[in-house]
Amino acid sequence: MTTVALKPATFAQALTRALRDALADDPSVHILGEDVGTLGGVFRITDGLAAEFGDHRCFDTPLAEAGILGTAVGMAMYGLRPVVEMQFDAFAYPAFEQLASHVAKMRNRTRGTMPLPLTIRIPYGGGIGGVEHHSDSSEAYYMATPGLHVVTPATVADAYGLLRAAIASDDPVVFLEPKRLYWSKDSWNPDDPTPVEPAGRAVVRRTGRSATLITYGPSLPVCLEAAEAAREEGWDLEVVDLRSLVPFDDETVCASVRRTGRAVVVHESGSFGGPGGEIAARVTERCFHYLEAPVLRVAGFDIPYPPPMLERHHLPGVDRILDAVARLQWEAES
Amino acid sequence: MTTVALKPATFAQALTRALRDALADDPSVHILGEDVGTLGGVFRITDGLAAEFGDHRCFDTPLAEAGILGTAVGMAMYGLRPVVEMQFDAFAYPAFEQLASHVAKMRNRTRGTMPLPLTIRIPYGGGIGGVEHHSDSSEAYYMATPGLHVVTPATVADAYGLLRAAIASDDPVVFLEPKRLYWSKDSWNPDDPTPVEPAGRAVVRRTGRSATLITYGPSLPVCLEAAEAAREEGWDLEVVDLRSLVPFDDETVCASVRRTGRAVVVHESGSFGGPGGEIAARVTERCFHYLEAPVLRVAGFDIPYPPPMLERHHLPGVDRILDAVARLQWEAES
Amino acid sequence: MTVMEQRGAYRPSPPPAWQPRTDPAPLLPDPEPCRVLGTPAAAQADPELLHRLYVKLVHGRRYNTQATALTKQGRLAVYPSSTGQEACEVAAALVLADRDWLFPSYRDTLAVVTRGVDPVEALTLLRGDWHTGWDPCAHRVAPLSTPLSTQLPHAVGLAHAARLKGDDVVALAMVGDGGTSEGDFHEALNFAAVWQAPVVFLVQNNGFAISVPLSKQTAAPSLAHKAVGYGIPGRLVDGNDAAAVHEVLRDAVRRARAGGGPTLVEAVTYRIDAHTNADDATRYRTDDEVEAWRGHDPLQLLERELTERGLIDEAGIAAVREDAETMAARLRERMNQDPVLDPLDLFEHVYAEPTPQLREQQRMLQAELQAEAEEEGAAR
Amino acid sequence: MTVMEQRGAYRPSPPPAWQPRTDPAPLLPDPEPCRVLGTPAAAQADPELLHRLYVKLVHGRRYNTQATALTKQGRLAVYPSSTGQEACEVAAALVLADRDWLFPSYRDTLAVVTRGVDPVEALTLLRGDWHTGWDPCAHRVAPLSTPLSTQLPHAVGLAHAARLKGDDVVALAMVGDGGTSEGDFHEALNFAAVWQAPVVFLVQNNGFAISVPLSKQTAAPSLAHKAVGYGIPGRLVDGNDAAAVHEVLRDAVRRARAGGGPTLVEAVTYRIDAHTNADDATRYRTDDEVEAWRGHDPLQLLERELTERGLIDEAGIAAVREDAETMAARLRERMNQDPVLDPLDLFEHVYAEPTPQLREQQRMLQAELQAEAEEEGAAR
Ligand SMILES: Cc1ncc(C[n+]2csc(CCOP(=O)(O)OP(=O)(O)O)c2C)c(N)n1
Ligand SMILES: Cc1ncc(C[n+]2csc(CCOP(=O)(O)OP(=O)(O)O)c2C)c(N)n1
Ligand SMILES: [Mg+2]
Ligand SMILES: [Mg+2]
After folding, report:
1. Is A327 within 8 Å of chain D by CB?
2. What percent of chain B has pLDDT over 90?
3. Which of the other chains make 3 or more beta carbon contacts under 8 angstroms with chain D?
4. What is the pLDDT of residues B288-330, one digit of tens each?
5. Could you give the angle at which helices C47-72 and C298-308 cross, rounded to 10 degrees?
6. What's the CA angle centered on C76, arms C75 and C77, to 5 degrees?
7. Contact C161/A246, CB-based, under 8 Å?
8. pTM tops 0.95
9. Per CATH, which fold does A203-333 belong to?
10. Which chains touch A (3 or more CB pairs under 8 A)?
11. B7-188 CATH pick, 1.10.3720.10, 3.30.470.20, 3.30.1240.10, 3.40.50.970
């Protein structure tokens, strides 16, 4: 075994590195979006790429999201691998028609003769004090649209690995970047980056025996923190990071829940009609007789994303997760 | 008690009547959309309204759904009660940005000073042999958007009552019309139409003791048929028609499931990320100890809506519902 | 810098960013639609091209009537006829080189067929056995776009991609007058103009979007006047004059190929049939209007030109028609066969690899089909 | 009718639908932006108006610097400054009657404040205590629109609604150069034109959309050239010449009020500050460019005009500035107070009546807050 020099890197740096490596490895990769060229994007994820690879590989578009995604569809139809950046979650909505009616359906519509190898990067979620329309968790929309892969990394290594996998995929991938993790750091070897992950697999981030926290993206660090805090209460929590919402890794999730017999789904997205309902329902379908308690959900409230000064009340925090764990019927009911 | 003369009427006629009565009762009601004027809409739901009430009350717009909904928002901001017609489910997607970022949020954004009394009529679902983009079940998108009411009638009387209630509501209502029920008939007294229903309440359409079918819109008739067929197998099924997806009537649904101890959610929409996940999850959260089996789902497949010649395989039918009922663990597991 | 400090710098000049920009004059359309047939310009037209256009027009009309007939026999779920618009359909297909791409809207199966796609494949969507019937890459013909105008940005992206790859490819995208109101129309034209992408936008202004007349769709002097707002040329042409449509499109394609960027072409035409077989056009237009347009029929215009110039005779006309009849008979015959369908295909092309969830659903359907077959077997 | 039968009807005529349409010439903008200050036209301008504009410009500039300072003190989450664009902001607000409506974009809090909204309310969104701080109906000022261009169809709908009700109301909607690329811009202008709605669209072309320069946004001769494509007049004005912006907008508002329909106004201006306090403008533009525009400062242009015509003197200028300082000090002071917030309000305005589900969630939060307070109490 060789020892690799692990250096701290940010989530954002890992994404940039993934884009850079993809551009270098495959001439059919092109990046487009608002401000992705000269500026390097408002989050600087494409920083330096236009300078290094030229304006034709990483370029600014006019300000029109349907146009961005629609032209990217055309580029993919011609065999390129476009990587689109949407500036913020809510600003992807103008492109919804292109996404739902074309991106998701082109392969199916043409019996597989016209695949769309297209990555749509969307910074999503809250916790950064953004004003309205800058903190939406829009994954429920994409999950409900067959034909899309929906992927969201929660660690620095996954930021790299999953983005490489998304760009390499022959299917369209909605790649959701938890924007409040952009500046999170981890030890990571940028000179020997993690190999491309096989997409679609969840991973157990922390093993435990009392109950399973099922989560993804921005809520992973919160869940890990909650799991630490739970030790004080005598609970040994397992934490599963989904990484891919579509396809969904029933195997890993259900194996964990069968082991623990209890589960809480945690996400920032609103509860009603959000991802947690699907997850709770499918886990229950598959693990009913293993469950000691109903699968509970800790999620954002069913309200428009709050203004910055109130967002901390909205976001699922450690206490709210522990409250839910406490409600998992630890004592047999009468 | 006076006897009323019940006449057969179609679902479509009841909708037309609701629009007509709303126009007559309230001068602030205006109907707009593609082809709603002279033509009376492609489904003829606005037939005769422009002629009766004038071009300013029911008018054709340019062909642009974001523009239609966006201008309707402006009309509502000025105190009118616009009723928008989207021509088909998938053609509402270009308006998604206006819906998610403005329609759903305007009241909240302005602390209640700028409500939007706005009805968005969307013919939805399949079963009519429509080519692609003409048969989507898009309710999951709307359910996941706080600030919207989501309502869908399944009977002739509800077509009238719920549409009147939607137009009378001070909140925006996404009013989903199951297009394959447009030509369904029922006895209904058009001269003394059902009074406006209190919105947000589910209703038990058929009582039964073995299990509950939870459904809405286009799947209600299928569920009622399945319940009849189930008698042969010795099952006495209860059928709940949700009518309103947002708000959700936990009370009625859970009361039924607590009685029967078993439930199947039935809808046309795709299963993954669809309404059934939310419904199954919340019923399980609330009724866990009453459940003899996990809440199952019978839904459309997780694929783009199929071409006309294959749609019958996609749509939840009586047999598929009965298969699910059979899986409700009637004999105790080992 | 405070207001106070800035005072000294006062220079009463025009805004610094202001430079004389592109001259708008050449971008504006002529006041009258371009015409060739029946005008002196017709003498310049290539007789062979005129003859080819004529043959395709006759076939096209016959194709339209045949497809409409198939709806009555229940062999097509729906058919949006392009009767009256054949000049646009045919010219759009013929003007392109083999390597070029065509982006049709839902009404444009005739252009698709004229480009060489098997008519049965072209009609697959409307028959209902699948969505797109042909392999788009094999024919360089994009799928029919039902959501209006959404195909326009695809054409721009594809043309841009071809340029990025150094390929000499032009994309021609078709849209209706109603479709010009959609945001996607605007975004596509703007992207094309900024990128100078080799795209030609052909608007068939047939006077209606289902029941909505042009006057409720736009207040513009013409749809071609939209071009100047994107900094590209707008051209106006008589959409029933096949020679004129071909000429205007040909110039636009050449311009695009030479790196001159996109062009917006408005072809003024008329939809003789109802919106689709399911539509009742008498609700929103008069017979007189339709009759007036029948007098400006694209086939007649060209046939008269050819006849008057001695480029075709009665026998030649009859031969073309016979040929079209044969095509129609063959199409009818093939469409009368039930397509063979495998419901399990539903799961095959959602993703490159079906997800575990889809495999599960596929197995369920398979079991159902098996049970069904067994029941049928038992009943027999 | 078969092809054969139709042959007899041949009439070589122009397409029946073709009529000479609206003359496009008057809809096209002048080749140079309209200017008043420093030109002979200034002599016609109302001195009182010029003075009022000047006062508002000085206040506006001070408001911009104050708000930017508040971001540094953490009192505002973010501030998109309109320094350099005050002439547009101020003229847009002053040109409207009380009953008219203003539709601001996210950069336009200065227009909102100039229209009379309390600056603390105008800054609520950017401070982060709520979304919209004022009652839109009370002020006839729509919420700041963050999703670009989406407010434009609202303005059209509202203006149309007012006409339907017989009210004499004009809507003025503001948008940036970048925003003109969005589909909503197109749809709004088209609806307005077809409906002849009383709307004025003011595009502040400040050269950039964040980092993207106008040349990557459009290839049009000018943004005002887009108007003819909708059949409405396009006007071009020096956006730093407050008198010119006011005049052009005033004419457009009058035209709208008189039933003449919408106008598109492009004001050529420049964003002197970065996109927001969070942006680094040195990444995409040169100091020279900024300096050139500082020499065309809207305050200086007007101050010089007033001074040269003896409409103001040093004392007058000083008085105006002092006033602005007082305003700024008052704003600073008020913004330094922490807003009082009730987290339970989150649930109050989602629907007219909170749903049972929201009541449940509200109770949960209430319990959490109570527990938090008790813990804090215990800790004390
Ligand atoms: C986005 C979208 N909205 C609505 C429709 C429904 N629709 C189908 S055809 C049509 C009218 C199209 O008019 P036009 O663009 O002029 O084309 P034409 O039918 O005249 O060829 C409408 C409204 C659609 N297909 N797509
Ligand atoms: C629909 C949408 N897409 C993207 C953004 C992100 N964004 C905020 S401001 C801006 C640039 C706007 O440029 P312009 O319209 O010229 O206005 P300016 O900032 O110059 O005032 C962008 C891209 C947004 N707010 N809305
Ligand atoms: Mg048309
Ligand atoms: Mg700008």
Report:
1. no
2. 92
3. A, B, C
4. 999 999 999 999 999 999 999 999 999 999 999 999 999 999 9
5. 150
6. 125
7. no
8. yes
9. Rossmann fold (3.40.50)
10. B, C, D
11. 3.40.50.970
